[in-house]
Amino acid sequence: MKITRLIAFIALVTITFSCKQEGGENTAFAKAEKPQFNVPFEKFTLDNGLTVILHQDDSDPVVAVALTAHVGSAREIEGRTGFAHLFEHLLFLESENLGKGGLDAMSARIGGSGANGSTSRDRTNYFQTVPKDALEKMIWAEADKLGYFINTVTDPVLAKEKQVVKNEKRQSVDNRPYGHARYVVGKNLYPESHPYNWQVIGSLEDLQNATLQDVKDFYNRWYTPNNTTLTIAGDFDLAQTKEWVEKYFGEIPRGEEVPAMEKQPVTVANTKRLYYEDNFARLPQLSMTWPTVPNYDKDSYALEVLASYLSKGKNAPFNQILIDEKQLTAGVRMFNFGSEIAGEFGLSVNAYPGKDLDDVLVGVNEAFTKFELEGISQKDLDRIKAGQETQFYNGLSSVLGKGFQLAQYEIFAGDPAYITEDVDRILAVTKEDVQRVYEQYIKGKNYIATSFVPIGQTALALEDSDLAQVVEEMIVEGAEETFDASIAADYERTPSSFDRSKEPAYGTTAQVAVPNVWEDKLSSGLEVYGIENDEVPLVQFQMNIRGGLLLEDINKVGVSSLLADLLMKGTATKTTAALENEIESLGANIYTYSDKENIYIGGNTLAKNYDKTIALVQEILLQPRWDKTEFDLLKQSTLSRLEQQQANPNSIAAIQFDKLIYGERSLLAQNNLGTPASVNAITIEDLKSYYTNYVVPNVAKMQVVGAVGKEKATTVLAGLNDNWKSREFTIPVVEVPKAPEQSNVYFYDVPDAKQSVLRFGYPAMAETDKDFYPAQMMNYRLGGGGFASQLTQELREGKGYTYGIRSGFSGSTLPGAFAISSGVRSNVTYESSALVKDILKNYGKNFTQQDLDVSKSFLLKSQARAFETMGAKLNMLDDIANLGISPDYIKERQAIVENMTVEEIKKLSDKYLNPDKMIYLIVGDKKTQMVKLEQLGYGTPVLLNESKEPVKN
User: Fold this and answer.
1) What is the pTM of this model?
2) Of 384, 375, 413, the residue nearest 15 (C-alpha)
3) How big is the chain by its Cα radius of gyration, in Å?
4) Which residues, listed in sequence order, are joined to residue 545 by a DSSP beta bridge?
5) What pLDDT digit, counting tens, does each position of 22-67 carry?
6) Which residues does 15 contact at the CB level (< 8 Å), separation at least 6?
7) Is residue 63 within 8 Å of residue 129, measured between CB atoms?
8) How many helices (DSSP H) and strands (DSSP E) are in the chain?
9) How many CB atoms lie under 10 A from the CB of residue 139?
10) Residue 1, Cβ neighbours under 10 Å: how many?
């Protein structure tokens, strides 16, 4: 092993600042203190070129392993696009020594987070977080991907995975509003010869035309040790881990040398305007894109600040012009997106229904002009940088996040320790830099503009726009090639110096450290729960105020949602803009929202600013501004959101499923946002009445996690406790229907849908029910275990019908639903539904001791990573606070798992998985799919809507 050792400390900078001055020594980053947050790592290189980066962190008994190949869609060629992403799928299926489905099966046994991956223009990564005792197993498995995989890929394997990737494209692109927008931008921003001209997921035609030899050639060229980085982060023995890496990776042959990707910035010779009639859009969307610089370019930092300043917050120029003044939209999205060889700066506006995008463009130009005249203040620059500090810490709050960042810097900046320079460059951005990059890359420069409009509303597109060229898949019965996934691959094994077919043994069993939970109840009735953890200098908190939709008038639904939103629109002494500035200047984030049972207020802040952040929470809760103008804007925004939901098949399915589960007139069946009629009827007095009657401390529970102890956490709440007055009231009891006596099929028509969205289930039980956790355990092998579940193995891996499918029990203190959800290829809607029915019918009778052993192993071993992140700890506190369970519930559940038997699983399956007593909802294309569903044996499907949507020719 050739070792090029580098031991370094990655440092983030702790910042102190004053928000009261516009310049000088006391402004935000002029007083950057010495680094206080370290990510130590060691880097070395094997003789075959594999780069290895190790980071030790013993705060939790877990290890994150990530294998990153420096290959993305940019390494592809025109006509063979989508290969990089295809490999992200293929590498999970089989390797010589793990066998078919071996990685997913192993992930379940060892209690891992689930083998996963992602593909970008420039890299593909594979990752998983596992208990520390499974580290050798993971290194063995990852090495099998890199050196002992490609022989297992056969024509049937390739044919099946093509279908899975096509389903992913249908789900993420073809069957959603504006799904083709990025394709149109890419085709027109980048020349045909540029590697960013095509999308990462590729084209359906290219995927279909890919041959087995094409695939093998791509793998052999790019999946080599000298083009790959292995990162291991977490609780492990350094010397032992190095030995394992050398043992399992060391003899994999070095590949052909991989040349560095040359930067390929682009220019736009002439502004292009393109339009497209979108089958799923209800709102017209304008996007504008300018070419800029690659990631880590010195100008990328100022461009990120520019995007944030122009579009985020009440005082942002685009907010002032497009939202407040012209009332054309509810929001503006703006970003600088840097990749390895080029970059782009973009904005996207979903206008209100019927708004002309030419009017939006006028507003865009006025907002840019406003910025040209006023620029950015030092105070605003400091505010944005403070938020960037918090984002850094958030990104490094898990061992996987640290591993990702180390690999990112190694591959694209040439040094894992680049984070120090990265932070320095953020700190170095000046007001003049922001103005300069605007003038250099945006002002007066040519761009690509797209207008995606609802069908039949081309008049809303920008004037002089040309029709964008988009290839849409037709729904054709039996169009996909068939394959037999059961055929075992026949191949010659790759030689090795030792027997790789034997899975390594577990290491020392990870000792799970359940966080210490503290509790307090203040005199106002406010209950507080906390976990102290100083791994990163952050605090996360959330308060839930019981009520939500349950306290609303069913004829005027949407009050609690609007109230939650309005609470963030200023206080008695602060305008919306002033409140936002104070929050952001602390490097904090505060949010509010509501659901069926609660109104929530929560956030994330630097620990040093926890007291100031909670002071703002107190002001938000106790001194609402009740701004009528903001209220009217929120109503308009809510109506727009409701309109958008009706364009999204997944949103339609969620809304309709609730109605079928709970009954049309149940509060639990209502959309939390309301309906167009109810929102229009709501007045600000309705919000005030709800606030006065129901926003009180004696129904509130606060959870706090992070670098703050009980004493400070509760002391800081003294002002809120003293000034928040309690009030007694009764929350109505909502009756939840029983499961139907016989199954019925319901259909919601979305003309020309490329996928059918399935929601099958029935009203089940509350999370407080004694059967809830045992039923969850029973469901693990059905559809709760990710790729290891039977639904996934049969519908995705066995048939290629879907990109993903899951099942599970939801619930709280109120009964929730058992639900199976998926998006399936339109032309196999009936076949998918019938297969799900058959799996449910036979699940209990076919459940084996091996199934039970896998379920037990996963549920017991996964406890090692159950509390790693701050979010996981916050969820634990939420369960304790709101479900009334003991802080020792982990031990109680462990006993349930250990004592579970196959017979008990069969009884639970018989009780809770009866396919003949369920609701079957399908959202899809009626004209091609509805009639066939009669074959399920549950009568004629009930049509829930008569679609009046125009259909594009």
Assistant:
1) 0.89
2) 384
3) 28
4) 599, 700
5) 333 333 333 444 335 568 899 999 999 999 999 999 988 999 999 9
6) 28, 29, 31, 32, 33, 385, 386, 389, 587
7) yes
8) 32, 27
9) 23
10) 15
